[in-house]
């Protein structure tokens, strides 16, 4: 502990130079965030939201790798006519069927009945929407495996090239609209569908094994898809969150729900020393240092801004104004641990309910799988 304190005292004058200069420029007295060096908490400090976020991302990524591998072996069992090792179908694969989730949501809203096929895809979609309704787009930066891989590529890109490349505003703004166009396209397909058509699609051979079709899409990948993935992967090294920022329709939907989130990033302009570290740290390029509340659909609740702020009770992810602002005696700011806990509770609660109510596993007689899975490549869209 002493060694750590010694390190703090040796490093602090050097690292904090720019913070001290910012405080001087703003003519405000800087009250430091407790435990910080250069405005930041050490990575291993349990108060550091980044530690919890990276832990949540890693666990969710590993769970998804496990789900995909198990699902592959489950598919192989039926493809080989039962001549390979049997594994249980991982119901979590339904999280990869957002269109089926959307169709089932529409079906449920119209009939008030939970559909028998791919019900978990709808329940997981509802859980992710509930997260954004409460905690901005936390799903994107805390749980989504694609978001995690995007972030890893951006970090690697920064190591290789020394910086992230930014598109000019005239290109950035229209490109950000692309994800809404993709979302509008999917909503246009699903929303006008009558219940009978939804039912016919989901109960068709294609709908019954939509999860297998999705796996096959990547197993027997087409040239265009492969080129697109390679371009996106290389592009993500240069442009931070390329897929999430410009193209992800799921993120677009979640972003719309996030507008209603009562928890927001809030800044106390009185204690802010205008150092600009929050805006610099924001992967979504939000000018946090110039806002009192971050309301935009682009905020993913990653808390990178909060973790880079050197001033105590100045930047918080909270329900109310930061402590110290006129009329604010308590700060209801969330710690990283609290966000991780809330996300876990929403997800575990949804899965627990789905299991308890019998909606977690799609119950199809085995002979369907024996018949449909080996022929899955020949099944076309109904
Ligand atoms: S405003 Fe803060 S929480 Fe929101 S995306 Fe930017 S850094 Fe993350
Ligand atoms: S809110 Fe932003 S600009 Fe203000 S002190 Fe914190 S990091 Fe610096």
Automatic annotation (TrEMBL):
Residues 263-291, 292-320 form the 4Fe-4S ferredoxin-type domain. It is found in: Cell membrane. The chain crosses the membrane at residues 55-75, 117-135, 178-197, 217-239, 246-263, 332-354. It holds the Pfam family Fer4_5. Its main location: membrane. It comes from the Bacteria. Keywords: Cell membrane, Iron, Iron-sulfur, Membrane, Metal-binding, Transmembrane, Transmembrane helix. This is Electron transporter YccM. It comes from Pragia fontium.
């Amino acid at each position: 502990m002493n060694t750590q304190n010694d390190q703090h005292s040796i490093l602090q004058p050097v690292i904090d130079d720019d913070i001290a200069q910012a405080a001087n420029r703003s003519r405000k007295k800087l009250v430091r965030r407790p435990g910080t060096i250069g405005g930041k908490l050490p990575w291993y400090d349990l108060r550091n939201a980044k530690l919890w976020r990276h832990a949540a991302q890693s666990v969710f990524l590993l769970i998804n790798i496990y789900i995909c591998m198990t699902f592959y072996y489950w598919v192989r069992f039926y493809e080989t006519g039962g001549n390979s090792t049997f594994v249980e179908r991982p119901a979590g694969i339904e999280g990869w069927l957002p269109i089926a989730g959307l169709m089932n949501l529409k079906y449920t809203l119209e009939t008030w009945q939970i559909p028998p096929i791919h019900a978990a895809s709808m329940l997981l979609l509802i859980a992710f929407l509930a997260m954004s309704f409460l905690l901005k787009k936390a799903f994107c930066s805390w749980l989504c495996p694609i978001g995690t891989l995007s972030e890893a590529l951006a970090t690697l890109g920064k190591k290789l090239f020394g910086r992230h490349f930014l598109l000019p505003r005239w290109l950035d703004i229209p490109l950000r609209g692309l994800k809404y166009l993709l979302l509008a396209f999917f909503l246009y397909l699903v929303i006008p569908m009558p219940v009978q058509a939804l039912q016919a699609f989901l109960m068709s051979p294609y709908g019954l094994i939509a999860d297998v079709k999705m796996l096959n899409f990547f197993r027997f990948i087409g040239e265009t898809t492969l080129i697109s993935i390679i371009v996106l992967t290389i592009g993500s090294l240069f442009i931070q969150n390329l897929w999430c920022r410009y193209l992800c329709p799921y993120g677009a939907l979640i972003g719309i729900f996030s507008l209603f989130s009562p928890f927001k990033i809030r800044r106390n302009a009185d204690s802010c020393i205008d150092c600009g570290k929050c805006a610099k740290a924001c992967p979504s390029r939000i000018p946090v240092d110039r806002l009192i509340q971050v309301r935009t659909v682009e905020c993913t609740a990653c808390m990178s801004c909060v973790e880079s702020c050197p001033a105590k009770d100045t930047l918080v992810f909270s329900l109310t104004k930061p402590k110290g602002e006129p009329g604010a005696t308590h700060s209801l700011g969330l710690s990283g641990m609290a966000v991780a806990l809330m996300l876990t509770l929403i997800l575990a609660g949804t899965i627990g309910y789905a299991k308890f109510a019998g909606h977690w596993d799609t119950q199809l007689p085995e002979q369907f799988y024996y018949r449909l899975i080996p022929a899955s490549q020949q099944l076309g869209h109904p």
